[in-house]
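Submission checklist for the structure archive. All mandatory fields must be present; incomplete records are returned to the submitter.

[x] Identifier: Transcriptional regulator
[x] Organism: Kocuria coralli
[x] Residue count: 196
[x] Sequence attached
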Amino acid sequence: MKELKESLPSTFTTETSRAHGVHPRDLYAWRDDGLIIELSRGVFRRADAPPASYPDMIAVAHRAPRAIVCCMSAAAIHDLTDEMPPSAQIAVPKRSHTPVITYPPVTVFRFDEATFDLGLTSFEAGPGEPVRIYDAARTVVDLMRFRRRLGEPIAHAALHRYLTGPGARPALLLDYAEALGTFGPMRVALDIASAR
């Protein structure tokens, strides 16, 4: 128990606990005693850690460190939608290994390497625990790119919320849309939204 309080971060992996000299037997005893909570296979959170706003996103970030929260999950975090996706939606580069995560449920999008980091930022999923996410403008453009898969009404509603929110940058939407190959649909959607 002493090692738990003194050395392990709020959220950690089995590998991190081993690096801190914790025997797997002790780790699972802590879990069974309720001192730690298993968020996902091999990802644990101390029971005494400050509450996390997005524990599922923290778990996914530990399981797939290169992944970026995208699409509906990013829209929900940026308050661009009231829809709650049934799974955490993450992007990985096309040529990388696809993470296999059974819990929490995950939907993986494969994005082109050349534009993978476009619009990359982070948000605090728990106190002092940043998680990679696409910014609001990139999220709107991605929803427009995947409007047939995720729903056209969702893409247009997110665009409307983005444009009426603080710090809206329509020109940035077009820059991202051009880089991501969806300039035409984005331009039309912006024209319709501005005509209202």
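[x] Structure attached
Curator remark: The chain has a mean pLDDT of 90. Strands lie at 11-13, 36-40, 43-46, 68-69, 88-93, 106-111, 120-126, 129-134.
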